[in-house]
Amino acid sequence: MLSVTSTGVDTTFIASKQTTSTVATESVSQSNTISSSDNTSNLDKVDISTRAQKIQQLNEEFFSNGIKSFKVTQDFIARLEEYEFITAEEATSLGTYAVSNNSNDDSTVSNLSSFINSFTADIKEEDPNNSIIGILQQAQTVLDNFNAPSQSSLKINIPQISSQLQSYIDSSEQLSDTDSNNLNQLVLALNAANILTPGTNTTTQIDSYLAITKL
Length: 215
Fold this sequence. Notes:
Strand content: under 5%
């Protein structure tokens, strides 16, 4: 109860009310903060779930026969754009070297892996210290773990080795048409791997959706 003393209003009563008001305000603020945090967390979970579902659908549509027979086709690029893993501009860029859906082209992950082995062996004979050898070995690690990233493959900077390979292609004047095509297909496969690799464009919580058939 508010009382009046000989000197005026009871300040103890006012201080008590101010303290109660402050506590109430802080309580509402904390409640709002918690609510906001919960909402953000829920949105993150929904986003993760949606991306996981999209990757699962990609797996079912394009990896049903295992990773070794996988090749980057026009349909695959179109689906990545549809699922918003890449932009329309990126789809156009990637589609430059994507094989047609009914093509007999042998640019599968398995064949690209074999190409790396033979191409690396040829380079070692000519120049054992060529820096492209290490880049190709890293690319090999990515391909060998394309659908089930390992600790070693997750440490590889895929965009960097992809860029280095592209620079090698652009600067090499003695590449045969076959080698040039295989290297371009390798860059394309690396870009696709980067899109699907946990820790880059996706999250470690969807690892299980990527593990279809291990090499």
